[in-house]
Specification:
Layout lengths: L16 H18 L3 H4 L7 E3 L11 E3 L13
Antiparallel strand pairs: 1-2
Amino acid sequence: MATTFKVQAQTPMGEPCLCVVDYMNWAVYRAFTRGEMRYYRAVEDKVSLLVDLYDKAKYGQNYYTRNNPFDISKITPL
């Protein structure tokens, strides 16, 4: 059985939900790369799970939840 995929590029004007996803990713990126938590703090109440896949030094404890909130001071530096 053949499977086909149809991919359509979208702009934020055409699909507003992309703006939300893009902002969330950007906010986490800023926290990790520049240590700026202010953008993440604006949306942190919407984040239920954040996993730092590259923090192998803290494997098993490299995830953040509402009970264990993400903060830049908890991560292993890049």
